Predict the 3D structure of the following.
Amino acid sequence: MIRRRAAAALGAALASFPVVALVGARQTGKTTLARSISSGRRAVFYDLENPTDRLLLDDPLRALRVPRGHLVVLDEAQRLPELFPVLRVLVDEDRRAGRFLILGSATPDLRRQCAESLAGRIETLELTGFTAEEVVPRHGPIELLWTRGGLPPSFRARSDAESMRWRIAYTRSLVERDLALFGFGVAVARMERFVRMLAHVHGQLWNASHLARSLDIGATTAGRYLEALEDTFLVRRLPAFSANLGKRLTRAPKAYIRDTGLLHALLALESPREILEHPVAGFSWEGFVIEQLAAAAPPGWEMTFWRTAAGAEIDLVILRGGKPRVAVEMKMNETSPRPSRGFSQGCEDLDIGERWVVYPGERTLPLPHGVMAFPVAEAVRALRSQAKA
């Protein structure tokens, strides 16, 4: 079994809060992690997609009043939102930590119920797909993780072709089944086209009007589609960082397909060679690095980017307490990963001391002007060191 870094955070949360929610996209391994962390304790599992388990919860107050010291795990909790007021009653009767573990996707209903019914009683954690820290190099090279993405069935498939078939089925199921089950009222055919178009503009500035015209929908509807995909963890919207520097700055966010394996499947790119020959390659690597660093960043740290109207740009500006802490540029070049002039200018404008280039190589390289070139794993370690500073 691949050891998940989230296990430590989940254990700490269960030791501190009566209710913990572990959210994330489907197939990231939430159930597997929950079973692993509960193996040393007494636990009761309910799968809310299982009709038998749902029947057992017809009388939730009785079913969830388990003996003291037991952990109750509610898998796919978004399927039964009426349970949340019951959880509040039970928690208010006994505030012991580690009573309930909720697994699911951060749908509007789940977020609302957590905020309204369990405020002050719950901590929410996100489980992503596999990260470079977890699988590279022991379970495969960085190229494999980038190509196939981090969703466990895709990464661990026996071949690239098998992985591709799984990813195609996954995206189809997400659009045709999950969005409706999660309560997003979207037209399936249009959403399928929207997702594919979004893959073609991955990593570029979000232009709702452009996509709306292509789909014959309104810009507001296009924005609603994007929000739905964010809520199901398919898409990351990276906001622009603005600073009062007397410069004209880009305000529009960027949109990324969060899992590069799904991005490549949407673009029918199966092998590393096909990806490298496609115009999306640089943007794909950029999104991949953003997800690796976002997964490692402490709570409260923000991921943004910075671009001026004149063209100076920083791919990723990591904020701590609202202030720029780290500037990152992503480069596909393994032999000469030098930052652009616009990156250096942006770092000077924002007075950022930590200046990194993240590239697919294996060595950490000092570059001119205080820039460090890092492999992905080293960049993640450097970010963790920043968090301790």
Notes: The chain has a mean pLDDT of 92. Residues 132-388 form one domain. The longest strand covers residues 313-320. The first helix runs from residue 6 to 14.
